[in-house]
Write a structure and sequence with these properties.
elongated
Length: about 250
């Protein structure tokens, strides 16, 4: 029963995506909505990303230093490990799990509210492709801005680790900086950015799907937001495993 329900939901999601990715009827209107969504979904997320990244970068550096006290491990390994953890996992996967809560719930609740207040029905009556009109600008905006958020996360996380070296005596600044530069692999940066595109698509489309097919009232909108966040998080973790295998083998 659960498998049949999941299969039916996946089929409806595919039909939903096919309606979303059609040629906009009015390019000018679609462009204006996309710019507005960039501000709402992307720019408004920058303060959250910076705050979380600073603290996580500092915590990673502290924990690495406290757990690598062996004389056989070079002191610069703290900076190296902090850098690789941030580039490989935190700046893309963990960040997108966090944004699934903020951005995903925002999208699901917004579209869900439009559904229960019959605004989407009004668009359909006027002959407007509501899927394309409402969802496509959100998907494009989030896909466009997600790499920028990833770069912000990378930068501020490493700065958070460097701040620990500057204000404490756990590790010297020179050793930490040397670790950040040692054995640098440029592909790790591109790896994080590539993964972020997939995760941004998942967050935007899955959240829109749950919001679009809400039935009922305000209570169901809240449930749809919760389901959107949970489902997006699970799919992100699944794709994290798949993409890691494909991109780092």
């Amino acid at each position: 029963m659960l498998f049949a329900s999941s299969l039916a939901s996946f089929g409806r999601y595919c039909i939903f995506i096919s309606k979303v990715f059609t040629v906009p009827e009015r390019w000018k209107v679609s462009f204006k909505r996309t710019v507005s969504e960039v501000s709402k979904l992307g720019i408004d997320s920058i303060p959250l990303v910076i705050i979380i990244s600073l603290f996580i970068g500092a915590v990673i550096a502290i924990q690495m230093q406290l757990n690598t006290t062996s004389p056989l491990i070079p002191s610069y390994s703290v900076g190296l490990a902090t850098r690789d953890i941030v580039l490989l996992e935190f700046s893309n996967s963990i960040l997108c799990l966090i944004l699934a809560g903020k951005v995903g719930s925002n999208i699901a609740s917004e579209i869900g509210t439009m559904r229960v207040t019959e605004q989407i029905d009004a668009l359909e009556i006027m002959g407007v492709n509501s899927c394309n009109y409402l969802v496509l600008p959100k998907v494009i905006a989030f896909l466009f801005f997600m790499p920028i958020l990833v770069v912000f996360c990378m930068t501020t996380s490493l700065f958070g680790g460097l701040t620990v070296a500057m204000v404490t005596d756990l590790i010297s600044v020179s050793r930490f900086t040397y670790g950040l530069q040692a054995f640098f692999n440029e592909w790790y940066v591109w790896y994080g950015i590539i993964k972020s595109f997939f995760f941004a698509f998942i967050i935007a489309t899955v959240s829109s799907y749950f919001g679009y097919y809400v039935k009922g009232g305000a209570l169901e909108v809240g449930k749809a937001s919760t389901n959107a966040v949970v489902t997006s998080s699970i799919i992100i973790l699944l794709f994290d495993v798949i993409l890691t295998k494909l991109l780092l083998q």
